[in-house]
User: Fold these one by one.
Assistant:
Number 1:
Amino acid sequence: MTPVTLDPHLHAPARLQIATVLANITSAEFAKLREITGVSDSVLSKHLSALVDAGYVKLTKTALAGRQRTWASFTRAGRKAFAAHMRALQALVASAEQAIAAE
Amino acid sequence: MKRDSLSPTEARAALRNVGMTRAQMAELCNCPPWRHAAFGAIFAVLIGSIAISSTAQIVGTVIVLASTGLLVRSDLKRYGVFVNGYRRGATLPLTLGYVGAMIGLVAAAMYLRVNDFSLWTKLALAAVTFGLATALSVQWSRVFRREMEGR
């Protein structure tokens, strides 16, 4: 079977979860992303930094209820990369199903 | 180690992971009834104040801006996410339809003001706006949740 090229920045399950959240909303707070991904603060920071370095995510800090909070949002490149990654995953699954049906 | 390919089984697992995350988001965006009513009340104040007089409109606009700010702050604190009403997806037709309805309601409010209709008629228009905006908020949340659940 021909390997499908996927975005290496979105491979890790936690990064795919972060990308899924950011693709559907405008921005998410650090604590909410930690709750959804179920990873520790340091692991989430690493994943977010990697996505920022790739140009996929933008981080902003705002004060809310007397506390400094970090918010993450997708850049245009991040949105496009996630959409392409999803298409590649769906194509991979579809081609596998076609191969099974053809047998 | 970075890889640029996955097996179909891994791809299926990744898609399942995406589906589970979206389902979590659907749960997250389950607004309480008061939140829908607050959205409706903001628009009712806006349309009602436009219908009453230009002075009421100024006061109404200040109230609307302040309460919108409070509502957004409360949403950010409670949910930890910000969702733009104009986001692409299944909710966009609903949002655009509502914007169209709001333009119609603003025109109706101006008509009532210019033609000096009774206060009760103007309040009735505000009540209609409240019902419409509240229903829109409820429906918007439903459509968003359905989209997240992949239904």
Number 2:
Amino acid sequence: MKGLLRGLKKTSLARIATYFSYAHYRVFLSVLTVTSLMIFMHTAILIFMLPPPFSTGPFLAPIIALTSFFYVFVIVYLISVFTSELSTGGALLFLSFPLSRVEYVFSWILNSVVAPSLLYLLSIAIPVAVIDPTLVLNISGVEITLAVLEMTAVGTVIFLLSLITKNRKTALSAGILLYLVVPYLGLIAFSYFKYSLKIDLSNTPVFWVYEALYPYKAGLFTYGSVSWSYNLAFPTAILIALILAATLFYSKYRLEVV
Amino acid sequence: MLKTLALILLLSGALLLSLLTFFTVSNLEVFSERRWLGIDVRGVYVSDKKVVVLTDHTRLGSLRRLEGYAYYAKCRLRMDVMKVFLPNMEVNFSVTNITLYVLYTKDAMSVTKIFSGYLSEEDVDALLKALELKKISETKLKNATTRRPRWYRYGQYFESDMCELKRGELSVLVLFEGYLKGIKYYNKTRSRPGFFSYIPVDAELEIVYRVKPTQGQLLRALDLMAIGGILLGLDIYRKPSEYREFLNNLFKLKKLLSRTKEPRK
């Protein structure tokens, strides 16, 4: 770990920034188009369909459920671009320049997971903040934070899997599985265990992992049993940090680019 | 990334500004929801001429009012027969006035608690004063039987105008006033203790939302556009080569426009 941090300290931020802007420029138009569409959808839904004035529950759930469903495809697509660069040998070209593997992988994490999540955050936070800034400080702020953290956490897991397998199909299938199938199947399984088999999994490590990986869905669907607060964000933040460390560790010591 | 950020800020600012500006000139209802009102009778006054019926309050819940949004309530009511059923009699009356009151729930609770059961004439005066004092807003329901919806085939149909709702824990109640037409007494003993009575009406409340953008909202949208513009300007200054083609096209367009403006010789 110390070696990894030392390695990170030595890496030039300028090199990461340069490669990141190059990689971002390659996907600039698609990211901009989808994010603009998201902004339009968020604004329109917020003005025309919301807010239900007498509801007390999570306020942005209908918006986030709809738009995050589409937006995750951007992250999956970007990770698949990275994987195809690794598998087809495009990465060799960049790594032959003074760019280390850690810098290269870190730039791609920024480009494919962090930047789209932040853009999603902006696309939803901007309309909310313009319409009523007090909302961001209330329950909507928690909602937005948890939704973005969930997107980032799952994105980092998919990124690590894609990095290990160096297979574009793995990135796509893991993306669809982890973003769209596992969270809902997990909920069905939890409720089946609880109500049919009378086994409560809510205080077991299985549910803790679920809660850390999907804090927004855990807060939304188990509303009442899980407290809807920023406390849900801490396990996810720790999970993201751990996966990032594992990714950088793998890229420094194990990654072979052929 | 700076370019993306700048364009996103610029786009979202422009979109919000145009939508909000559209709402400042239009009076469009953006959304509405409907609720059935429970019409249990809470208090009743019957004299040889006049009948006043106070219904129980219906809780709407806690209204969370967002900046720039205005909420209104509109009531629709259908009466098959103009009767009120009391524990030992059935009062037939002709409606002259139906009023919908919007109150804070705690006020509505105290009013319906104080003025419950059989009321005297003094009670009715006090009730009207109390409602006048505590109400957030009120609206009179007008007879709209000629415009009643197709599914209401029988009976009298009443509709109210919009009345504004305020932030807080809200309730609504309806007050019927009319003149007595007849009383039918029952010889049965009361099966239950207490004051059980009802008025056979279908009442529906429609809550309408309208956007009335505030100056703050418009300024915030404008700020976003300005920040986006400044960031884009900075990016153009930082990397003019990326925008060279765009700037060239812009200059060409400018040249073309200035040429078309020149008077023909």
